[in-house]
Amino acid sequence: AVPVLNVWPRSIRQHFCAIVTRHGKYFMMEYAAMGNQRTICLWSGPRNVSTALMYSFRQRSDTRVVDEPLYGHFLRVSGAEHPAALEVMKHMDCDGDRVMRRLLIAENEERPVQFIKQMAHHLVDIDERFLRVTTNVLLIRDPGEMLPSLVNQIPRPTIRDTGLKRQWELFEDLLLHGEHHPPVLDARELLLDPPGVLRKLCAILGLAFEPAMLSWPPGSKPEDGVWAPHWYHNVHLSSGFSEYRSKDQPFPSRLEALREECDHYYQRLHAHSLKATT
Fold it and tell me: What average pLDDT does the segment 96-110 reach?
């Protein structure tokens, strides 16, 4: 009987779903899958050019973007020590389940595609059934290049802080629940060939590639999270994807054990990346 909702006026549908949600909150998520909105979740780790990719999708004519809506939730339940953690939690809704419900019922007729930049390690102590109605993409980066950058914000990182283990668990979980090979992007491949990788990704997502995705105005964006001053300095200086340059500094010896642990999951995911499978 649920599909009959699609013929009701939008205001009535939303009111009805709000009532039903009091008795089954994830009905709203199931309903969202039947509407006109398309929600894409990018599951990344930190220092993976994820903000640049968000800015890229922001340039599309049909897309609106959301910046790490589960960050406050993650900080609340994990107690992780991150730059400006108290400020982040003060400015965000820290109930992850409520955050995702609201996002999945938000509609915008002019921009029906919703691109949500997420950190994989933010998926903690949250009902993950919303993943069944979102399109999910993973973004990874070689830990040998990611870790020296991450320590600028998190001086003593752990495997949790990188998101790589959580990304592999998420990849396996999505396959287990019937999602057909969620696309995996490697940051290096993206920077080496932005138009080629974005064309492949758009084709997989069923979207038309738009050349506007290759550039954006420098500076901050209205969608940036309150944490931007601590993390986004370089991307705010950019007007497009930076040219790929390999690290020329020696890898910090104190991070070798973590690098080895990260590489175990990175190599598994990289085997499924767009370049490796096309």
Answer: 93
